[in-house]
Every structure is written in structure tokens, then in C-alpha cells.
């Protein structure tokens, strides 16, 4: 048995067929559209509903994009449709889309996710003076970055093995 399922079981009533379809579709989209070179990946970003539409999420993403630009790194994310306009304003371009018709899972309509990439403002070869290492596993946003956020929000940066991360 998978130990992560024991420590973090799925809520009762989860549509397992839909979850499996969503997970495999997201994996396929990432395999097809995530840059093959080293890149930063925005894994999850969510702002508390009472603080949405105030630019807080955008400011946090901009902080990360500034780091990516200094290092000449490409950024990748997958977004729900309501986030696409925000990410476009930040310089991301749509490179792929995944859609799941919900009727066969007992729902209606379609669930979509969009693969997006943002090229750095400077080429990696031009980025100097930054020490780049490798992050292994997961980490939460550090205290210094957390202080720059103006209101409570949930933000988790997750990086698969081999993803570059700037060291101080």
C-alpha cells in the first residue's frame, strides 16, 4: 500500500475515475509541454477568497519571475482557466491545453487546464553573479519571501528533483 495514501487519505466521496483521468491528463500535458531544459515550475498558488482580486497572487509570482529573469530561466505552469488571464499579463504564453468532458463522470460541462510558459527577459548565458544549485524534494516559501506578501495566502512551491533553485 502506498504510504502517502495512509498519511494523506482522499476525502470520502472522491470520484476516483475522474481523479485518475485528471492526474494522467495533467501528466501527459506536462510531458508534452513542459520545457525539456532546466526551468522553474509554479506548482500551486491559491489566494484566500477574501483576499482575491487585489493583486496579491500576481505580486508573489512577480517575485519569483524576477529571480527567474536574473538567472535567465524559463518558467512553466499549468493553470485553471480563471488564472490564464493573470498569467498572460505576467508574460506567460499558452503552449497546450487539456480538457476533460465531465458527463462521463456524472457531471456536466468540461474541466480544462492550460499549460503556459514564460521566457526570461534575458538569456541564461547573459545571467551572471547568481549561484544556482539543485533543490531536491519540496519546500515551502521561505520567511523572507513570505514577508513580502501583503495578506495571508496559500502558496507552495514544489520542485521535482533536478529543478534549479537560487541559493543565497
Feature tags:
disordered N terminus, 9 strands, four-stranded mixed beta sheet, disordered C terminus, 5 helices, 168 residues, three-stranded antiparallel beta sheet, globular, alpha+beta
In short:
By secondary structure, the chain is α+β, with helices and mostly antiparallel strands. It is built from five helices and nine strands; from the N terminus they run H-H-E-E-H-E-H-E-E-E-E-H-E-E. The strands form three sheets. The chain has a four-stranded mixed β-sheet, with helices on both faces. Strands 2-8-7 form a three-stranded antiparallel β-sheet, with no helix packed on it.
Average residue pLDDT: 74
Count the helices. How many? 5
Helix content: 25-40%
**In whole angstroms, how far apart are the ends?**
39 Å
Q: Note the beta-strand portion.
A: 25-35%
Structural class: alpha+beta
Q: Which series of helices and strands comes N to C?
A: HHEEHEHEEEEHEE
- Which blocks of ≥5 consecutive residues have pLDDT under 50? 1-5, 128-168
Amino acid at each position: 500500500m502506498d504510504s502517502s495514501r495512509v498519511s494523506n487519505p482522499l476525502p470520502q466521496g472522491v470520484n476516483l475515475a475522474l481523479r485518475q483521468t485528471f492526474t494522467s491528463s495533467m501528466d501527459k500535458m506536462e510531458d508534452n509541454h513542459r520545457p525539456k531544459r532546466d526551468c522553474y515550475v509554479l506548482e500551486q498558488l491559491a489566494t484566500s477568497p477574501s483576499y482575491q482580486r487585489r493583486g496579491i497572487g500576481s505580486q508573489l509570482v512577480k517575485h519569483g519571475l524576477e529571480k527567474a529573469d536574473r538567472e535567465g530561466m524559463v518558467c512553466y505552469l499549468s493553470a485553471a482557466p480563471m488564472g490564464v488571464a493573470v498569467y498572460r499579463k505576467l508574460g506567460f504564453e499558452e503552449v497546450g491545453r487539456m480538457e476533460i468532458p465531465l458527463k462521463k463522470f456524472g457531471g456536466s460541462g468540461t474541466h480544462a487546464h492550460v499549460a503556459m510558459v514564460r521566457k526570461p527577459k534575458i538569456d541564461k548565458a547573459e545571467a551572471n553573479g547568481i549561484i544556482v544549485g539543485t533543490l531536491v524534494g519540496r519546500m515551502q516559501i521561505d520567511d523572507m519571501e513570505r514577508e513580502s506578501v501583503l495578506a495571508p495566502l496559500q502558496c507552495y512551491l514544489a520542485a521535482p528533483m533536478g529543478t534549479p533553485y537560487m541559493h543565497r
